[in-house]
Fold this protein.
Amino acid sequence: MNEDHSIVIAGESLAGVTTARELRRLGHRGPLTIVGDETHPAYNRPPLSKQVLDRAQPGDATRLQLTDDGITIVRDGAAGLDLDRKHLRLGSGATLPFDKAVIATGASARRLAPPGRTGENVLRTLDDARTLRDRLATAQSAIVIGAGFLGMEVVSACVRERVKVTVIDVEPPLRRLLGPFLSGHVSERATAAGVEILLDPGGVTLIGDPVNGVRFGDGTERTADLIVTCAGDIPNTGWLTGSGLEIAGGLVIDAHTRTSHPDVHGAGDVVTVRTATGLVRRPFWANAVRQGQVAAHAILQHPGAPAVFDDYFWTDLLGTAVKVVGDLPLHGPPEILDGTLADGALLRWRTPHSTTIVAWGLKRPLPRLRALAAAP
Ligand SMILES: Cc1cc2nc3c(=O)[nH]c(=O)nc-3n(C[C@H](O)[C@H](O)[C@H](O)COP(=O)(O)OP(=O)(O)OC[C@H]3O[C@@H](n4cnc5c(N)ncnc54)[C@H](O)[C@@H]3O)c2cc1C
């Protein structure tokens, strides 16, 4: 592509900002516009469920810096994509022409309450996090629906704030991704910290208007001061309806972030990647960064693009920092390379095809973990 061509990026967050930075770094000099529908300047989401929920931490600085002055930010929603005319339509009705477009509109929190019903809290945006932090300060009791990473981080915040918390899921905490070994350990730690863990294989429904509790499959009900749903996310592809782009549980891209249209790329939580084994969606921070980098390489036809996935993520569970490098889900028990689970351990899972390394409450530099995961 000509380095002076105009590029429009939809979504002013991690994937969009990374794409813009990388385009400039690789030499793109043409007009570059980011369209974002939030009122806040771009920010990072991982601190929302960690530092921002922790009233002992000063402020809630999560800003994602865009150092390049030549980038135009348009604070509006992207409302449609006309691929014949090559323009992006904004909520205001204005249009932005482009030579290349990047879709980086991320995902939204999945809600369980019907539209219009109040009282259900979710955690996806800075405003959600500030609301939840305020509510944690006054609540006596909370129910968290969903015992994945986000749900267990919210549970951790409840424990820190001395809010009596019940977490409900269809299976034990973190089992789907971390497997039975670490799930068992997390459950023990949570129970020892006073967390009530309840399972409902059919999934609970919300009750009350405003929402103030849950109903289990057997008809019993539970109420609490605070109800937080952490039941996954939904890719923000609705605005692409009618564009002709392939959507299948996310905007479909290939290993070079190409969509079904040659002038449109996708990156971050909005995408699902076509791989040899099928469509794979991994909505984690490192993948949003990586796919922004790959998109910039692909658009500029710059050599040396990295792989479309960077299998690294971290979380913070009941005061324990966890870093994971490698494939998920995990099955069976690990080899313990160093330490003990109680005091901090370095763990390894090996299959014939991959190695996954977990630093569980043990400080180890990321390059060291990556090297261990890459070792034969
Ligand atoms: C609370 C929380 C904690 C997390 N913690 C971790 C963690 O510890 N480790 C980890 O690896 N990952 C974590 N993640 C995941 C990580 O933050 C995401 O993978 C990352 O934010 C994805 O970036 P993105 O730019 O693709 O999408 P998003 O961050 O979702 O950003 C998309 C942006 O596009 C905007 N947008 C949507 N539709 C439109 C439209 N039509 N027009 C214009 N703009 C639009 C959205 O408002 C948003 O600003 C966490 C996520 C959350 C919510």
Notes: Residues 177 and 329 are 4 Å apart (CA to CA).
